[in-house]
Amino acid sequence: MAETDNRNGPTRRTVLEGGVVTGVLLATGIPVYAEPAGAVAAAASPTPAPTMPISLRINAKDFAVELDPRTTLLDALRNHLGLTGSKKGCDHGQCGACTVLIDGRRINSCLTLAAMHEGDEITTIEGLAVGDRLHPVQAAFVARDGFQCGYCTPGQICSAVGMLGEARAGWPSHASADVAAASVALTDAEIRERMSGNICRCAAYPNIVAAIRDAAEGA
Question: What EC number(s) has UniProt assigned to this enzyme (predicted)?
Fold first, then answer.
């Protein structure tokens, strides 16, 4: 006797039969439905994204590049200009590996568009050294072995350079005992707080803090 449903809805048997048919189709590779020929053609030849000319000043040099206006500064640096020192870690602004300096202030380059920075002075890890002479923060990282795998190091160093500038300007942090003080004493607690946006998966934090402390003291 066939199963019936007084509500004229699908029965348990029809649901099971439908599942078996779908499973066979998926297992054999037979398409469940065929797309219209026009849809396949459209998918094969997508419309290219519009681009715009952008002028960027990076590490005291001028660059002209044609970019999709949605291109992030990080992707412009790495994929279009060959400046691969800035790393793509989380791509969500949470790890700090992509940190660069814009007019001396540190930002996450994965969270900003390249088109927003025409006329700005952009400094990446490649632009910190002067010839063969390392920036004091770079030299301190080498002396203190402030890196292990090195992936986060460019962002750590750029962030430290920007952070030291903030401290010299008297900007307080959540670790500052007196937020109204004219100067900031860069204790280990201050350094850790101010660098908390930069993640090191190798956990080289003690050496990073020591390197930044040395650079701050001019060691």
Answer: 1.2.99.6
- Residue 73 CA to residue 182 CA, distance in Å, equals 34
Give per-residue pLDDT as tens, 164-209.
999 999 999 999 988 888 888 899 999 999 999 999 999 999 999 9
Neighbours of 89 (CB within 10 A): 20
Tokens (6 digits) for 195: 């660098």
Two tokens, residue 8 = 């004229």
- Burial label, 184 (beta-carbon count in 10 A; 0-12, 13-18, 19+): buried
Domain ranges of the chain: 49-127, 128-219
pTM value? 0.78
Q: How many C-beta neighbours within 10 Å does residue 211 have?
A: 28
Angle at 111 between CA 108 and CA 116, to 5 degrees: 100
Give the C-alpha separation, 185 to 205, whole Å: 19
> Domain 128-219, what fold?
DNA polymerase; domain 1 (1.10.150)
CB atoms within 10 A of CB 186: 20
Q: How far apart are CA 104 and CA 191, in angstroms?
A: 18
Domain 49-127: CATH architecture, name and number where available: Roll (3.10)
